[in-house]
């Protein structure tokens, strides 16, 4: 994947997120992806170009069709970045739990 900024920028649009959710089910053509949306095929194609530019999808040529699919490596890279944040939050919560436990322990000692 080119960069996380590009991926998150692409993910900022709800239509693109919906397209990715559809591609999570399996490969689809532009026309299949355009079906549930109230927009033209060229508009969907522009969204696909953004997703492809961000490295989130890949396309292959199959005659006149260009089926799209998720780029699993890009999704894994985003997931690894989010895992790093989850781990940092877990460490912060663990430290907070420790501080609270120490405070409660001290309060128990001070009571007559």
List the helices and strands and how they pair.
Elements: H1 4-11, H2 14-25, H3 30-34, H4 41-53, E1 57-59, E2 68-70, H5 72-110
Antiparallel strand pairs: 1-2
Helix pairs in contact: 1-4
Total number of distinct structural domains: 1
Shape: elongated
The profile of the biggest β sheet is: 2 strands, antiparallel
Largest beta sheet: strand ordering: 1-2
Beta strands, count: 2
C-alpha termini separation: 62 Å
Model description:
This protein is mostly helical and 112 residues long. The protein has one domain: Orthogonal Bundle (Arc Repressor Mutant, subunit A), CATH 1.10.10. It has five helices and two strands; from the N terminus they run ααααββα. It has a two-stranded antiparallel sheet. A hairpin with an 8-residue loop joins β1 and β2. The chain starts with a helix and ends with a helix. The mean pLDDT is 90.
Briefly, what is this?
The protein is mostly helical and 112 residues long. The protein has five helices and two strands. 69% of the residues lie in helices and 5% in strands.
């Amino acid at each position: 994947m080119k960069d996380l900024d590009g991926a998150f920028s692409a993910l900022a649009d709800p239509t693109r997120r919906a397209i990715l959710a559809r591609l999570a089910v399996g490969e689809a053509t532009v026309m299949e992806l355009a079906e549930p949306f109230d927009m033209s095929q060229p508009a969907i194609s522009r969204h696909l170009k953004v997703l492809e530019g961000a490295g989130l999808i890949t396309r292959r040529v199959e005659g006149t069709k260009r089926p799209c699919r998720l780029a699993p490596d890009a999704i894994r890279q985003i997931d690894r970045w989010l895992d790093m944040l989850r781990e940092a939050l877990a460490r912060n919560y663990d430290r907070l739990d420790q501080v609270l436990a120490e405070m409660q322990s001290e309060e128990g000692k001070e009571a007559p």
